[in-house]
Amino acid sequence: MASFRILRSGDSGNLEASIDRLLNEEKQMRLAENVAGTRKAATEILQLCFEAKDWKLLNEQILNLSKKRGQLKQAVQSMVQQAMQYIDQTPDIETRIELIKTLNNVSAGKIYVEIERARLTRKLAKIKEDQGQIAEAADLMQEVAVETFGAMAKTEKIAFILEQVRLCLDRQDYVRAQILSRKINPRVFDADTKKDKKKPKEGENIVEEAPADIPTLLELKRIYYELMIRYYSHNNEYLEICRSYKSIYDIPSVKETPEQWIPILRKICWFLVLAPHDPMQSSLLNATLEDKNLTEIPDFKMLLKQVVTMEVIQWTALWNKYKGEFENEKSMVGGSLGDKAGEDLKLRIIEHNILVVSKYYSRITLKRLAELLCLSIEEAEKYLSEMVVSKALIAKIDRPSGIVCFQIAKDSNEILNSWAVNLEKLLDLVEKSCHQIHKETMVHKAVLRS
């Protein structure tokens, strides 16, 4: 093996002869099952081709060496790893793609180079994306299931899956994006990275270190929730968007910088107001009001207090006050609040006002309800009916007389207790009736005897 350096330096004019000698050396080492020798001979051949800038010959030698009978796994792994270093030094895109495809063919179906194959696929997908072929790039990435790779670093796995999700969102494949996003458990971002890594026990997979270009776990957390915001924005799921922004807001690096957390806290406030009223929304609303940072943006604190307070909100006055802030969101982090956000904001204020009215009135005329809501009678009836259908409140409308009757929602225990009380009253009435009948019968019999 000492002759390799001499061949590379002194016989550069005769590349084929040098490669033939190295192939003979490689064969001898391979048949002797000499791992170090086979690996060295194979990598020397690739280095010769690279230095000669003969990319076609390089691809041929990679395929040739990988198909040798009884080729050692370590030799194939070393060849793939070394050839990957040449990818960024290729003269043009066509040569780069050809080299990546060659390495993909060699690593296909080989578990000992599965990580290298995943990295190659990602490089190829990036090239396709740069060429504008987003659908092809997404299809390429979906072929690789990195969640099954035991030796791949956790951060690299997450980064790969997030890339899959991003490409699906770019091609507007929202169903597949949701399926892929579920492969990541959000709790993984809360893991303590400062803990000492345990040494693998005998028989366990040795986890490789993630490449230098892979983001940290907290950076990946932000990327994950930004992608989830894009997904939820498609269906205007305001509460889920709000929860995603809340998770970004809780990242330590974000909370330390007012320039970062103020725009995010504004978004949280807006989406809390836009979200339909339910227990989760109410809980988040109260938790956000207790946040001390909210004092930095007093207008938004006032907005949340208005929504929490059980008082009728005048839509015109509210819109005139916050219209400017609403429009300013387009130039801030995350962009605009959505195409339907303005309409939905008005709808939430109407729903809030109907809930307020239902707290103070048990019966009210439709005309008076419409006056309180600043709507026509037809619109008031429409919004009230929608809330009843969605089970946001319980109400009945007497249309001939134009009266709305509100009822307090009862839980199952209260309903069962009322039934029990009614049954008890019924049994008491039956018992009294039987006693009276028996009494009248006895009196009637006494009269007949006399």
UniProtKB/TrEMBL annotation:
Residues 240-411 form the PCI domain. Keywords: Proteasome. It comes from the Eukaryota. GO terms for cellular component: nucleus; proteasome complex. The keyword Ribosomal protein does not apply. InterPro entries: PCI_dom, PSMD12-CSN4-like_N, PSMD12/CSN4, RPN5_C, WH-like_DNA-bd_sf, WH_DNA-bd_sf. Pfam families: PCI, PSMD12-CSN4_N, RPN5_C. Component of the 19S regulatory particle (RP/PA700) lid subcomplex of the 26S proteasome. The 26S proteasome is composed of a core protease (CP), known as the 20S proteasome, capped at one or both ends by the 19S regulatory particle (RP/PA700). The RP/PA700 complex is composed of at least 17 different subunits in two subcomplexes, the base and the lid, which form the portions proximal and distal to the 20S proteolytic core, respectively. Belongs to the proteasome subunit p55 family. This is (rape) hypothetical protein. It comes from Brassica napus. The lineage of its organism: Eukaryota, Viridiplantae, Streptophyta, Embryophyta, Tracheophyta.
